[in-house]
Design goal:
heterodimer; A: mainly beta; 10-stranded antiparallel beta barrel; 67% strand; B: alpha/beta; 3-stranded antiparallel sheet
């Protein structure tokens, strides 16, 4: 179901923009490809019966993005994968929606692999402000434990740009998402929400290329069916390269 | 499960709403019209017709828009369109005074029109070509050319159609034949106050002499009150200029009138993209139902000695205030010996313009 929907949306996005290419005015189609490396940490809290903190300072990952822009309309596709290593302050797993208890890993060391995927369409109102909306998913997989939690939902984001000069631009994005939480078998195990905040700067290195660096925080709140709650703050600094193709 | 389904449905609806908005915008942008299929132009049998005055052209192509509000994105084909038209006019139609202006600001554009106008003499044949953004102010339905330094929807930074018409009218006061070709969005608004129609051409030499003797002030636009495409199947040109160029280049006749040319271009463009070029005359500018004549200079016609084919490329008197103006000073008796024109560009200006293109920013996620 999820794969079909995402495939359909991806095709819709591409076909919409491709369609516009055949009828639009003298406005170029811009394809932007981006890649970034990030490093950061994960904090939070296992609420309820366990009530302990979550903390990892050993996080790293990579992100890839594709953007299509035609005039003021744009489509975005982002994929990000990360690895976070925990010592004793670990996110616990909720194995049973009916249970009130979290499941401790029973291990001193834990690695969680994360993934973020978002697909959206947006409109840039002027040089300074853009809005976008679409689907977003966030997964947490407990390495070696065959445990996985997926957050899937819809969201909107507002982005602001502050051009400092011909070569420098500051930007920031605030996103809000409402999500369902599912286990690895696709069973509904709770509701969640997330707020993302990204602040960064981009520097033009050529007419069609830029480098960017900044900070992004993803605050995720989970309320499991059994009543347990979790809070996650996944924060990363990143460095990226972006290249555009105009058609 | 229902809640999950709701999330999917809401998400799908958002995306579909955006898509519909997107497509409806483009449906509006590609304002449809019926195709007009005209008769084939008459056969022009005589190569002996020649115009008395000089053939002059002002060619403007705007690509590197630097709108601080980001509304006017850079174009890719307008400058190459302008270059192609210039080459064609010089090499195939013996235009002797050709001034090309790339990436013109409002001030440069207005100065170029005025300076060009001052060079025009009686009996000259004058062509003005513009490729770039156009704008329609829906508040008052007025059309504009958009210079590269335009700012958002601030109409005071545009060049109003009435100003263009005034300048063309000034040119036509001295010239014998004047033709304005505009390859921009909403260029059809230039024709809103003029009569339209294509004059009947029986293809005879008498007809050509008749329309050559009468004054003309004609306008050919890439479309009506609609958006026009910037690129045609990766040809490197807009569809309008692609077919304009094609018709001029492949024209087998020694003489083709502006009306015949426009009819061919109109059919070709309409058959391939959803825009319809328009032809008309500038009202109140002295049009006497004459015709701008394109006379080939490198046409191989049996029985016509090459000595009769001459192309002059004149010095443009004042280039100091204009950028990317091309000129040559020599006279050639045979177009085939015409060397490549100096296509040097003002590198500083080009680099600056390049810098001012919209910056590639990272893709944002929500």
């Amino acid at each position: 179901m999820k794969q079909r929907l995402i495939t359909a949306l991806l095709l819709t996005t591409i076909s919409s923009i491709s369609y516009s290419e055949t009828t639009q005015s003298r406005i170029p189609l811009t394809l932007t490809l981006g890649a970034k490396l990030h490093s950061g940490g994960w904090t939070g809290e296992n609420k309820g019966s366990i009530g302990n903190d979550i903390e990892s300072e050993k996080g790293r990952g990579i992100g890839l993005s594709v953007g299509l822009r035609k005039g003021n309309f744009f489509g975005v596709f982002n994929v990000q994968a990360g690895i976070y290593e925990f010592d004793d302050e670990q996110p616990v797993y909720n194995p049973d929606p009916i249970s009130e208890d979290f499941d401790l890993t029973g291990s001193d060391d834990l690695t969680i692999n994360t993934g973020f995927v978002s697909l959206g369409l947006g409109y840039q109102f002027n040089r300074y402000f853009a809005l976008q909306g679409g689907i977003k998913s966030h997964s947490q997989a407990w390495e070696d434990l065959n445990r996985e939690v997926d957050y899937i939902g819809v969201g909107i984001g507002a982005t602001g740009f502050i051009p400092l000069s011909d070569n420098w631009t500051l930007y920031g994005t605030l996103g809000i998402n409402g999500m369902d939480i599912k286990d690895k078998d696709g069973n509904d195990i709770g509701d969640g929400s997330s707020t993302s905040l990204e602040l960064g700067a981009a520097f033009r290195v050529s007419a069609l290329s830029s480098i960017s660096f900044g900070f992004k925080n993803e605050a995720v709140t989970a309320e499991f069916a059994g009543g347990n709650e979790q809070e996650h703050n996944i924060a990363n600094f990143y460095f990226g390269f972006n290249h555009g193709f105009r058609f | 499960m229902n809640r999950k389904l709701d999330f999917y449905l809401v998400g799908a609806n958002i995306i579909l709403a955006c898509t519909l908005l997107f497509n409806s915008y483009n449906s509006f942008a590609g304002n449809r019209g019926l195709k007009i299929v005209g008769d084939a132009p008459g056969q022009l049998s005589s190569p002996t017709l020649s115009s008395k005055g000089e053939y002059r052209a002002l060619i403007i192509g705007n690509d590197t828009y630097r709108d601080p509000e980001g509304l006017w994105k850079p174009l890719k084909r307008a400058v190459s369109d302008a270059k192609a038209i210039e080459t064609l006019l010089v090499e195939h139609y013996g235009f002797s005074d050709v001034q090309r202006l790339e990436n013109a600001s409002r001030s440069e554009l207005l100065h170029a029109l005025r300076d060009f106008s001052k060079r025009i003499n009686t009996d000259d044949n004058v062509l003005v070509y513009y490729a770039g953004h156009g704008f329609l102010d829906q508040y008052n339905n007025k059309g504009y050319w958009v210079p590269v330094d335009a700012q958002g929807t601030d109409h005071t930074t545009f060049v109003r159609n009435s100003t263009i018409r005034d300048e063309i009218s000034d040119m036509s006061a001295r010239a014998k034949h004047t033709l304005l070709i505009s390859d921009s969005c909403f260029s059809g608004t230039l024709l809103k106050t003029v009569s339209r129609g294509i004059r009947a051409n029986d293809g005879s030499e008498a007809y050509l002499k008749s329309v050559d003797n009468k004054k003309s002030v004609q306008i050919l636009t890439a479309g009506g009150v609609e958006y026009v495409d910037d690129d045609f199947r990766s040809s490197g040109h807009s569809p309008f200029t692609y077919f304009l160029q094609s018709e001029l280049k492949n024209n087998p006749h020694p003489v083709i009138t502006a009306s015949d040319l426009s009819r061919r271009v109109q059919v070709a463009v309409s058959n391939n993209v959803e825009q319809k070029p328009q032809i008309g005359v500038l009202q109140g500018a002295g049009d006497e139902l004459g015709e701008f004549l394109f006379i080939r200079v490198n046409l191989e016609v049996s029985g016509v000695p090459k000595e009769r084919i001459k192309v002059k490329v004149n010095v443009i008197s004042d280039t100091s205030s204009q950028k990317n103006v091309e000129s040559s000073t020599e006279e050639y008796s045979d177009i085939s010996t015409l060397p490549s024109l100096n296509l040097s560009e003002d590198e500083g200006a080009a680099n600056k313009a390049d810098k001012q293109e919209s910056m590639i920013l990272p893709v944002q996620s929500f």
